[in-house]
Design goal:
The chain is an alpha+beta fold and about 425 residues long. Among the domains are: about 130-205, Roll (Pdz3 Domain), CATH 2.30.42; about 210-340 and about 365-420, 2-enoyl-CoA Hydratase, Chain A, domain 1. Helix content is about 30%, strand content about 25%. It is built from 11 helices and 20 strands. It has helices at about 40-55, 65-75, 80-90, 105-110, 145-150, 170-175, 235-245, 265-275, 315-325, 385-395, 405-420; strands at about 10, 15-20, 100, 115-125, 135-140, 155-160, 160-165, 185-190, 195-200, 200-205, 210-215, 220-225, 250-255, 280-285, 290-295, 305-310, 330-335, 340-350, 355-365, 380. Strands 2, 4, 5, 6, 7, 8, 9 and 10 form an 8-stranded antiparallel beta sheet that branches. Helix 1 (about 40-55) packs antiparallel against helix 2. The radius of gyration is 22 Å and the shape is globular.
Length: about 425
C-alpha cells in the first residue's frame, strides 16, 4: 500500500491483518457530515467516483453506464445494508479485487494501520488478480504469524474451517481479526500441499527499522533492516543512517526482504536519503503521467549500497528498490520481488463507509511497470524452503549473518563495490 500526504492512496492493495488495517493520515472523514446519504445516493456516489477516477477508461471493458442504469436508476433501496450489497456487486463487475467497498466498521478499522501498533496476527494479504485466491504478501517480523511460520505467497484456503473461496480481502480480514489472546486456525496451501496453523492473536508494536554494524570481509558494514514503510519509518531510517555514519561504516546493506510495503511518501523520503538526484517513481493514471517524485540533493550518504529483496518485498519496497536500481545507486541481491504496482485512492463516503478505487499504476524511473512483473535483482540468490524456514523461523540468529546465503552474497557484492571505488583501509571513514 502507498499513501500520499494529501489523500489516502494505496499501492499494493495489501491489507494488514489487525484490528487496525490501513492508515488514516490525510483523511478528513466525511462520515461526520451534517447529513446522511440515502441508500440510493450512496450507490450513486460510488458509481460517480469510479466513473471519474478509475485507472482504465474502458472500465476493464465493462459498460459502466449500463451498470448505473441497473444499480442506480433501475433499483430502489430500503436500507443501507441493501445499498452495501449492491455496491459490492457493482464493483465486482470490474473484476478488480483492489477496487473495494468498506462498510463503516471496516473503514474505521482501516484508518489507523501504520501508527505503529497493531492487534492481530501480523500478516499482509492481497487477492490474486487472476485466481482470486487470498494470498499472503508477507508476515510482519516477530509477529504471531511470522513466528508460526507463515511465508510470502502462502495461499489461505480456510479460516477457522471456513473456505475462502469467493471471499474478498475485507471478508478475510473480518474473519482473521480478533481480540488478543484468542486463537485462529488457518489452512494454508504451499507448493500445492495443505498446511494447518494455529495462531494466537496479539497486540503488536512495530518498530520498522533495526540496524547494526558488522565487521565483515568487505569491511565495517552498516546493516539496516526495514520491515514496513510506516508513518515513522523515515524518521527511524534517518536516525539509523546518521548513527551509522558517525560509526564510520564502509558501506551499507539495506534489507527489504519480506517488507510488504506501506506509505508512498515514506518510500519517497527514504529513497531520497540514498539518492542525490534522479527520478524516484512516477504514477500513471488513465490520462497519462500524473505525478513524478524526484531526489532533492539531500542524500545522507553516498557510500556503496546493496539492497536485499525477495518475493515478500512489495509495493513501497519495490518503489525504493526500483529507484535505487534504475539510478545505479545500489545493487539488488536476492529474489524477484512480489510485483504490486497498482495505486488506489481510499476515500470516505457520506455515511462513514469507504471506497478504495484503483486510480493509477506506478513506474520505476526507467519506465518499468512492475505490476505482476516484480523487480529482478541484479544478483539472484534463491533459497530453498528448508533454508527459508531455518533463517526466518527456526534459527533466526543466522539471519543477516554470513550463514545467511543472501546476506553473504550481499557482503561479497558490497566488498566489490567498495574496492571498485578504490577506497583503501586508511581512507575508510
Amino acid at each position: 500500500m502507498v499513501i500520499t500526504k494529501s489523500r489516502l492512496v494505496l499501492g499494493a492493495t495489501a491489507v494488514t491483518l489487525s484490528t487496525i488495517a490501513v492508515t488514516g493520515l490525510g483523511i478528513h472523514s466525511r462520515g461526520q457530515a451534517l447529513f446522511k446519504a440515502s441508500p440510493k445516493q450512496l450507490v450513486e456516489e460510488v458509481w460517480q467516483i469510479v466513473q471519474r477516477q478509475y485507472v482504465d477508461g474502458t472500465f476493464n471493458q465493462v459498460d459502466w453506464l449500463a451498470v448505473r442504469q441497473e444499480y442506480v436508476v433501475g433499483k430502489s433501496y430500503s436500507s443501507q445494508e441493501d445499498a452495501y450489497k449492491s455496491i459490492r456487486e457493482m464493483l465486482t463487475k470490474l473484476e478488480d479485487p483492489y477496487t473495494r467497498f468498506m462498510d463503516p466498521e471496516e473503514f474505521k478499522n482501516m484508518q489507523v494501520d501504520t501508527s505503529g501498533e497493531l492487534t492481530g496476527i501480523g500478516i499482509t494479504i492481497s487477492q490474486d488478480e487472476e485466481t482470486k485466491k487470498i494470498m499472503v504478501i508477507a508476515p510482519i517480523d516477530d509477529t504471531p504469524a511470522f513466528k508460526a511460520g507463515i511465508l510470502a505467497r502462502d495461499i489461505i484456503t480456510k479460516i477457522n474451517g471456513k473456505s475462502t473461496e469467493g471471499m474478498d480481502t475485507n471478508q478475510a480480514v473480518s474473519l482473521i481479526r480478533g481480540e488478543p489472546g484468542t486463537k485462529i486456525n488457518l489452512t494454508i496451501q504451499r507448493d500445492g500441499q495443505p498446511r494447518q496453523f494455529e495462531i494466537i492473536r496479539a497486540r503488536i508494536e512495530i518498530h520498522p527499522v533495526k540496524y547494526s554494524t558488522q565487521e565483515t570481509p568487505a569491511g565495517k558494514v552498516g546493516y539496516i533492516r526495514l520491515n514496513q514503510f510506516s508513518a515513522n519509518a523515515s524518521r527511524e531510517m534517518q536516525s539509523a543512517i546518521r548513527d551509522l555514519e558517525r560509526q564510520r561504516v564502509d558501506g551499507y546493506i539495506l534489507d527489504l526482504r519480506r517488507n510488504p510495503g506501506g506509505l508512498l511518501y515514506s518510500s519517497v523520503e527514504i529513497a531520497r536519503m540514498w539518492l542525490d538526484r534522479g527520478t524516484i517513481v512516477s504514477t500513471i493514471d488513465r490520462k497519462g503521467e500524473q505525478e513524478r517524485e524526484v531526489a532533492r540533493g539531500r542524500a545522507l550518504t553516498n557510500k556503496p549500497l546493496v539492497v536485499l529483496v525477495d518475493e515478500g518485498s512489495a509495493s513501497a519496497s519495490e518503489i525504493v528498490s526500483g529507484a535505487l536500481q534504475d539510478n545505479k545507486r545500489a545493487v539488488l541481491v536476492g529474489n524477484k520481488t512480489f510485483g504490486k504496482g497498482l495505486v488506489q485512492s481510499v476515500r470516505p463516503l457520506e455515511d462513514g463507509s469507504g471506497l478504495a478505487v484503483t486510480i493509477a499504476k506506478y513506474h520505476t524511473p526507467n519506465g518499468r511497470d512492475i505490476n505482476k512483473q516484480g523487480v529482478e535483482p541484479d544478483v539472484k540468490v534463491e533459497l530453498s524452503e528448508e533454508q527459508l524456514q531455518e533463517l526466518w523461523l527456526n534459527q533466526r540468529e543466522k539471519l543477516a549473518t554470513l550463514a545467511d546465503p543472501q546476506f553473504a552474497k550481499a557482503v561479497e557484492v558490497l566488498g566489490q563495490e567498495i574496492a571498485s571505488r578504490g577506497i583503501t583501509t586508511s581512507e575508510k571513514k
